[in-house]
Specification:
Elements (H helix, E strand, L loop, with lengths): L50 H15 L20 E9 L5 E2 L2 E2 H14 L4 E12 L4 H18 L2 E10 L7 E11 L15 E4 L5 H10 L16 H8 L7 E3 L5 H13 L2 E5 L7 H10 L13 E4 L4 H9 L8 E7 L6 E4 L5 E3 L13
Parallel strand pairs: 4-5, 9-12
Antiparallel strand pairs: 1-6, 2-3, 4-6, 7-10, 7-11, 8-10, 9-11, 12-13
Helix pairs in contact: 1-3, 2-3, 5-8
Protein name: Hydrogenase expression/formation protein HypE
Family: Belongs to the HypE family.
InterPro entries: HypE, PurM-like_C_dom, PurM-like_C_sf, PurM-like_N, PurM-like_N_sf
Amino acid sequence: MTDTTPLAPAAVPAPGAAPAPAGGLDFESWTCPAPLRDTPNVVMGHGGGGAMSGELVDHLFLPAYGAAAAAELGDSAVLDVPAGARLAFSTDSFVVKPMFFPGGCIGDLAVNGTVNDLAMSGAVPLFLSTAYILQEGTSLAALDRIAQAVGAAARAAGVRLVTGDTKVVDSAGGDGVYVNTSGIGAVPEGVDIGPRRARPGDAVLVSGDIGVHGVAVLSCREGLEFGTTVESDTAALHGLVADMVATGADLHVLRDPTRGGVSASLNEIARASGVGVELVERDLPVPETVRDACSMLGLDPLQVANEGKLVAVVPGQDAEEVLAAMRAHPLGAGARQIGTCTAEHPGTVVALTGLGGTRVVGLPIGEQLPRIC
């Protein structure tokens, strides 16, 4: 789901206030007594593990997930994986504010984020868990939109939602909806991708425009206007990675530059591998809207979060072949080389400026854009 209308979580209704409408939810099929039918908002009982929890699963989550949902609902899932496969496992929590932003919401962000974490090891994502922490008073209509987005993103990515959990905290103890997703994927034979494999002479590639997601979230958080709507680039990247692997090139490192942006990812790679990284500023794909927003707010586009882009470090002789494969995929159409790895200044990232000088591209200090994922 990519509804771009910002929607904040509903507050607890004031005494005597009419209940908020619950979108497409049909409460007539729900059998629980009041307060469920009297208020279309999350109440503490939804996290209690009893009948109300069961109805939330049966009438909201499972219909939203559709074919991506597991057939059986137990405390754990028994999974069939390819014989002899190496498994990749990842977990992440999502607390983005606002929950809905231009181009996506916390639901598809949670699925795509964990799918991408698996893909960055070259894994084919297979199974995801979903765990929700809900603030009492959040509208069920908003929760339904998020669950629908989770289901749609999982189906699009070809992953199964095999287990999950729901907890409710009181109205003063949360902020709408938080989502945790964990994922399991299978790593194909011969694939060896990791942050310690970068070598001097490697090319540094990026799959497209940077800084888009962070600016999209920031634009609607405080009602900031940048002259045009910037939409999040959230997307599942495993198909793009599969096409890159299929070239036969020895992909050394893959990273999705989320929190801390491209800067954080490259600094982590440089330190893990003991190489230096040299970027060319004029080659950085920064859209004009992102550049203008960063200039206005004093931000470095290299440190702004992305949610649908990847950074790749590949042997220099394979760069053109890998770039061709990336550009042939819809999510890599804007791929380009932005730098190289070097034996000089190990562990440090520098950028060659348009004036012929250099500047150190460091790790961001603290969080520039709070709660962007």
